[in-house]
Amino acid sequence: MIRNFLAHRSPQVASLERRLFLRRGLSLGALALLSGCNVTDQESVQRVLWAMSRWNDRVQDWLFDPKRLAPEFPESRITKPFPFNGFYAEDEVIEVDGGRYRLEVGGLVKEKKPWTLAELYALPQVSQVTRLICVEGWSAIGKWSGVRFSDFLQRIGADLTAKYVGFKCADKYHGSIDMATALHPQTQLTFRFADALLPAKYGFPMRLRAPTKLGFKNPKFIAAIHVTNQYPGGYWEDQGYNWHSGS
Amino acid sequence: MTQAGWVEIHPLVVRITHWVNVLAVFLMLTSGWQIYNAAPLFAFVFPPRLTLGGWLAGALLWHFAAMWLFALNGLVYVVYGVVSGHFRRKLLPLSPRAALRDVRAALRGRLAHDDLSVYNAAQRAAYVALILALALLVASGLAIWKPVQLYWLAFLMGDYEGARYVHFFAMAAVVLVVLVHVAMAVLVPRTLPAMLTGRARRVS
After folding, report:
1. Identity of the residue in B57, B65, B148 whose CB atom sits nearest the CB atom of A241
2. Three-state secondary-structure class, residue B201
3. CATH code for A50-239?
4. Do the beta carbons of residue A233 and residue A178 sit within 8 Å?
5. For a tag on chain A, would you pick the N or C end, based on fewer CB atoms within 10 A?
6. Distances A229 to A120, A226, B11 between C-alpha atoms, Å
7. Of the given ranges (A165-174, A226-235, B46-55, B195-204), which has the lowest mean pLDDT?
8. B35 touches chain A (CB under 8 A)
9. Measured on CA atoms in the order A139, A145, A149, A153, is the torsion positive or negative?
């Protein structure tokens, strides 16, 4: 019956049907646009987006070549002034007392004694001129000097087969990176910026510098380092930034 | 089955990938504008009402989820277009002279558009430009996402900062072609049901 009707409908009726269909289709689209904010805030949508972010972690882990070096630049390319960025304003930057500073190490490591700054400065130092890329999109080239992080992890007898290295910071920031990045030759525990002692605004006395990661994966004011197989998350990562965020 | 007097002009694969692409490009543009606003390249930002995600992290979640929909759908379309001969039949031959001639004719309102199954030279140029701009968006997007691992791609785009500008201008080109495309579809409304059903009235 229906097929019969469809076969015999006039072009005018068919045209009318199409117009009605289109008008309904368009108003449905308009409705979806108007209520767009509500649709995207729905928990199920957020769950899918976060699951895609975990999938992107795995893809980036697979893409990461532990031997591929980030480009290094001549000192003439250094960005001046180098921007300040943080989860608070520049006038709220904390001052850490270098004399009383002790770096704590914990988790899956053999040697758990705290480190003084003098002991850290006595370790072999390296320098790099690399581009720091912020998750916001901007980038800046700077010179950082300090200890190769893989050297330090070996020195404290860290379990190099563990999955994560977590950082707790004196400014209440916290974060974590994958072990492959921690062992990358350019990943550095940084004590100096532009050939001078690391200024407070860039994380005195010690920050992480990993040129294969976005800026927020380079924590400042590091107070404690722990090696673990339990996913440590991070200040920004817990709010939605992609955890791997590798370059 | 095609009714008498009707001819199939848009294959099913093209129709499906077209509408999936509409959704994917919509998500990529609106989330991308929010990401742009976090560190604008120029002295303007996109109106927050037109953006998706609420804030930078939300927009990044959308952008890096929808990129899979956009890229995989685009891959299906391009592979189909090459293998089936769809691109060769519909988009070629293409000459700049013919494209300019048809654009001028269209601006004077003298471009005949009776047979929807054949693209005029202005359409061919616009669709080829759109496909190339979308491919450039993928390439520059990958260079921004992975400037170290895909260093050769970043190098081709003028390093990380160069890739940001390429990404922006490719986006602007896509928006321009889409605006013209939608305007033309409104002026020749028969094209819209044709992209849904695949069929158009045969031209005798």
Report:
1. B57
2. strand
3. 3.90.420.10
4. no
5. N
6. 26, 10, 51
7. B195-204
8. yes
9. negative
Residue B148 to residue A135, Cβ atoms within 8 A: no
Yes or no, beta carbons of B164 and A131 under 8 Å apart: no
DSSP B113: -
Mind listing the pLDDT tens digit for each residue in A145-184?
999 999 999 999 999 999 999 999 999 999 999 999 999 9
List, in sequence order, the alpha helices (H) in B84-120. Answer: 86-91, 96-107
**Whole-number Å distance between alpha carbons of B165 and B41:** 8
Burial class (CB in 10 A: 0-12, 13-18, 19+), A28: exposed
What are the structural domain ranges in chain A?
2-41, 50-239
Give CATH for domain B6-201.
1.20.950.20
Q: Where are the domains of chain B?
A: 6-201
CA distance B14 to B80: 8
Task: Inform me whether the C-beta atom of residue A236 falls under 8 Å from chain B C-beta atoms.
Answer: yes
Give the residue with greater pLDDT, A128 vs B119.
Answer: A128
- Separation in Å, CA B28 to CA A78, A247, B182, B191: 33, 20, 18, 25
Instruction: Please give the pLDDT value at position B200.
Output: 87
